[in-house]
Amino acid sequence: MATRRRAAAPPQPPAWTPEPWSDGETSALLDAWGPRNIRAAGGPLRTADWRACAAAVTARRAVDGRAPRTVDQCKNRLDYLKKRLKAERSRLAGTYERVEVAKQKEATRLEERRLEAMRDLEIERMRILVDVAISASAVADTATAASSSW
């Protein structure tokens, strides 16, 4: 007895495709979310805070005559942005570390040059003082010799 396999039906396209976020909407979300996140000390936002964030984004969208964003859409967008930020930070961590190491080496080299210049200046200052002392001594000796010849 042979069983027939039916070909799997192609997946149906979603009935609703989410509209991509514009830069202006993302900016409005971050502007609304940032101060609230600081007040919440990095903890979870209250429902009222999320509603206010969604209202700020919706106000931005209303200018263009588009449908409002929901609280869940705002939360999902923020989670996505946080994940992207974390991925970018980890991707660039090696670069930042190399730059910091190079900065430390350069700062050390500049400090060594500064100390060398200060040492050279101090040596030159001491030479000048010795020369002045010798000149003053010679002038004093000449003045003493001239006064004793009277």
Q: What does this protein look like?
A:
The chain is mainly α. The radius of gyration is 38 Å and the shape is elongated. The N and C termini lie far apart (about 145 Å).
**Rg estimate, integer Å:** 38 Å
Task: Look at the structure and give the mean pLDDT.
Answer: 87
Euclidean distance between termini CA atoms: 147 Å
Query: Structural class from helices and strands?
Result: mainly alpha
What is the H/E string?
A: HHH
Short description:
It comes from Oryza sativa subsp. indica (Rice). This protein is mainly alpha-helical.
Output the keywords:
150 residues; mainly alpha; elongated
Topology, pairings included?
Elements: H1 23-39, H2 47-63, H3 71-148
Helix pairs in contact: 1-2, 2-3
InterPro entries: ASIL1/2-like, Myb_DNA-bind_4
Pfam family, one: Myb_DNA-bind_4
Region (Disordered): 1-28
